[in-house]
Amino acid sequence: MEGLLDGIVVLDLGRVLACPYAATMMADMGATVIKIENPKGGDDTRKMGPFVNGNSVYYANFNRGKVGVTLNLKEPEGKEIFKEMVKKADVVLENYRPGTMEKLGLGYDVLKEVNPGIIYGSISGFGHTGPLSKRAGYDIVGQAMGGLMSTTGWPDGPATRTGTPMGDVLGALNMTVGVLAALVNKQRTGKGEKVDVALVDSVAAAMENITMIYQSTGRIPQRIGNRYESTYPYDTFPAKDGDVVIAAGNNKLYAILCDVMGKPELKTDPRFAEVKDRVANHVAMREIIVPWTKQHTIDEVDKLLNDAGCPSCPVNTLDRLVVDPQIAGARGMFPTIDQPGIGELQITAIPAHTTRTSTAPRKAAPLLGENNADVYGKLLGLDEAKLADLKAKGVI
């Protein structure tokens, strides 16, 4: 399966989610991603659930498509082996706390001397500059300090983390974009680059218009549930069997909603005449819509509104999501891999679809050190005796 990144070699030192996910996206786009793990236990997610037959599904999903080796970077021989790998690589990815790679003698300033064209991507909580750079950072820290938690949840509730680790996901996406841009620049200039991504920055950037409300008006946006600051009705509403989204984001769509509900008089009601009026009177607007949605199932509301041209959709629970004919069917977002120790496993694909090439997962996630002999033999020319010696020393 040819991919857009065929021929690109990525050394993945990442652990847990943000960095491994960035490397997984590159693997699904065709890069040769070599996952480098500590010989003593490997990636932390090997011990994180859910588990099938004692094997981590978490690890399998975020490390599919990679080849796996073990290497102790604290050992002098391990450092030298890593440098030899860097000579033959295009990208190095890591998510250690800033300063860790420098203490190992393997920071960007060292590696760019080994390979001037290397693209060095680093994801951390706060980035490599600033007074908080040495702090540890996790997804929930990124969501909290980046402002997302302050606007997530309900007016009478506490600050709320999103249901999925968006700080890590946003960090991974920004890292992938930065590294790919650096690769394009390298084609033009021949020069490498360091790409420094912080989880906090990634969340702060994603706040977009919420931040601009404060910057332009001085008003601090608060938690407002599922409705939107700038338009209404753009919210979730209760149906007979769950919740449904109605996204009547402009006057045309609002008029369609009024007609479908059988309430054309609302189109000329001065409380709801313009978007700003509906935002100001969202409580009264919601009190009119809820009795109508409660008369129908979520699928009925979805069909009635979309058939008329107004955006609507179910709030899918996971059992619905993984069999959704659009997402799971037509878009193939949950392909199956054959994962050693687990068997057939539905994983989550990357959302980029390409026309000439494939972005499908190319192989299962590696067992710990599974490809040591192949990678160190073919890439670095180490023979069986040398590999046995390195293993005996705890280097691999």
User: Cα-atom Rg, whole angstroms?
Assistant: 25 Å
| Overall residue-averaged pLDDT value | 94
Strand content: 5-15%
Order of helices and strands: EHEEEHEHEHHEHHEHHEEHHHHEHHEEHH
What is the CATH-assigned architecture of the largest domain? 3-Layer(aba) Sandwich
| Number of continuous helical runs | 17
Number of domains: 2
How far is the first residue's CA from the last residue's CA?
31 Å
Q: Going by CATH, what is the homologous superfamily of the largest domain?
A: Crotonobetainyl-coa:carnitine coa-transferase, domain 1
Short description:
The chain has 396 residues and is an alpha/beta fold. 40% of the residues lie in helices and 14% in strands.
Write up this protein.
This protein has 396 residues and is of the alpha/beta class. The chain has two domains: 9-206 and 328-393, Rossmann fold (3-Layer(aba) Sandwich); 234-316, 2-Layer Sandwich (formyl-coa transferase, domain 3), CATH 3.30.1540.10. 40% of the residues lie in helices and 14% in strands. It is built from 17 helices and 13 strands. The strands form four sheets. It has a six-stranded parallel beta sheet with strand order 5-2-1-6-7-8, with helices on both faces. Helix 1 packs across helix 7 (166-189), helix 6 packs across helix 8 (199-206) and helix 7 (166-189) packs across helix 8 (199-206). The protein is elongated. Keywords: Transferase. This is Carnitine dehydratase.
Note the main attributes of this structure.
2 domains; single chain; formyl-coa transferase, domain 3; alpha/beta; 6-stranded parallel sheet; 396 residues; 40% helix; Rossmann fold
